[in-house]
Amino acid sequence: MACKINELRARMHANERLTGLWCSMTSATAVEALSTLAYDWFLLDMEHAPKNSRTSSRNCACWTAAPSPPWCARRPTTAC
Hints:
Elements: H1 7-13, E1 20-23, H2 28-34, E2 41-45, H3 53-65, E3 71-74
Parallel strand pairs: 1-2, 2-3
C-alpha cells in the first residue's frame, strides 16, 4: 500500500514560498473565520494562549470541519 504524500512537506522541500498563519486566539468563532482564508498552512498555538482542553477542542473541531489548509496544534509544554 502506498503512503499518502504530505503535500505541504513536498512543497517545502521544493523551496516553494508558502504563506501560513500562527494563531493564539481562544475564540472558536475566530478560528472558524480564519479557516476560510487561503493560507498554505495553519498552526493553532495552545502553548502561548490561555486555552484549556475545552477551548482547544472547540478550535480543533472548527478547523477540521472547514475546507481548510493543513494544520497542526502546538500543545503546552511543562516547565521543569
